[in-house]
Amino acid sequence: MTQLPKRVHLTLTQNNLQELKDIYDGWPTDRRCEFYLKFGHIGFLLSTPIDEAMLRAAIHFWDPRYRVFVFGEVDMTPTHEEYAVLLRMPSATSGKIYKPDAGYGFKRKLAKIMGIEVQDLEGLIKNNGESEGIPWYVLRDVILGNPDNRVRLNVFALAIYGLVLFPKALGYVDGKIVNLFEQLLDNANPIPAILAETFRSLNHCRINGQGRFTGCAQLLTIWLKSHFECLHSEFKDPNVGDRFPVEEFKMSTWPRAMSRRAWMEKLQTVTATNVIWKAPWMDRPPLLYRCGNYSWVPLLGLWGAIAYAPALVRRQIGSLQFMPVTYQLDTFEFAYGIPGTRKFIFEVCEAWKNIHRVAAGAYTNSTTPGYPEWRANRLSGLVIPEPFEPERDDETDDLYEEREMHYKAAMTELQEENAALASEKVFLLNELRVLRAQAQERIEWENYMLKHNNMLQESLEELITRNRALENQVMEARSHRDRLEEERNQWEKAAEYWKGESIKKDCKAYQFVNYLREVAAEARNMEEEALVLKAGIGLGSLSGGRVEAFLKKAYQQYKYVGQFH
Q1: Residue ranges in 91-190 assigned as alpha helix (H)
Q2: Distance of alpha carbon 265 from alpha carbon 251, whole angstroms
Q3: How confident is the model over 206-247, as pLDDT tens digits?
Q4: Which of 196, 233, 277, 480 has CA atoms 20 to 30 A from the CA of 415?
Q5: pTM of the complete model
Q6: Are 115 and 138 in contact (CB under 8 A)?
Q7: Rounded distance between C-alpha atoms, residue 359 and residue 82, angstroms
Q8: Residues 153, 159, 160, 161, CA torsion sign
């Protein structure tokens, strides 16, 4: 094993969470309850203090080979079950874990989470040369301005994941966290990824002797301090379902704050009798101790993978401690992007589909025979911090703390300047968008007017053509009208002529009728005379002149009637 440095300078620079906390505190109770049910108790971490002195001391006792803290006679490490109890996430019991690089790019996922289009992210994505992400102030504006409550809750939870649970980047949420969060909404279990990045960061800082802790410092503070004395506990019975362990931790009374050196001395002298093996908020669930064919639990983080052996710390759930199988545990750690890692990622995902748990059994803090010797042999190559030389250490601590203060002040100033520049950038981008939108509207309006003008010109030409056709039709109609007028006049003249002729014929007919009446009367007279002559006198005595006159008159009547045929 590589020789570990004796001293570790751990940096605990955190994101400024005040705006997040103010938003969370301003929510009504029903919205908080909705947030708890959907994302667990991650919101309580916003106001959880970090014990920097304790964490800076504890890093010296981290064993990067077995991923445990070696405090004197005690081995301890955060477990999946403990973080699940603290965070109380709905998906914490799911065997579906985060799968790196799954699906399409993070921008499309981010746009979907924020309820916007992908093109609306233009100019908002931050690139620091190693990765891309979305600045906090962009998410803040969505949380405060979006009318959709579901979007507000999702974006708020995404901000906590990026700024608290995975604070690798300061001031913005890394794109890989967006990938994790998208799978979280699909019921993926995020706790293996939280543990993985915690262990990977502890390993990095311990092996290199320095570095910034990029795991969740709030969770690690709660976990570590809970295994030591609590002056006044506000923790409810672990068997009660409705619990808020993170809030109960903050309400409990703990010993006064200690310096890093005091914590170093305390942790060096921990024994199996003066440590609290089972945290006061912890119940005794079955312990997840292996996955698939692995003898331990592999963990896929956001930027790399690592493994840990929960069987090493069975006493944290009050179970008998035995010698666990740790073969190849120390070799299972890699960063993504290295050739061959995809195969391991697939194997780990498949292994988590077949997880193995062991019941806690009878409550005990004992070990099996042979375990102390096995542990001593295991620690033979580990660098254990030696007692401090007070004079030299105090001077070193003062110098380090002074530099840390200057560094924090400089970082705060830089963050404020960065926030101001970011706000100005957002303002300018918004102005640019407005100008672009106005220019686009102007172009669209001009194109519309040009198209409309062409349409009007074509309509005008069509109207002129139709007007000419109508004028021709009017002229033809007038000519036709004149012809009809002429024909009507002719018919009127003909009608007048035939009307006169008809009157004439009516007069002649009237005369003829009168004449017939006269002839008929004359005929009757002659018939009577003929009868008289025939009866008394005889035909010969009829006056010849009278007969001749009668025949002439009959001939005239015949000629007169012929005039009407």
Answers
A1: 106-114, 136-145, 149-160, 175-184
A2: 27
A3: 999 999 999 999 999 999 999 988 888 888 877 666 788 999
A4: 196
A5: 0.71
A6: no
A7: 15
A8: positive
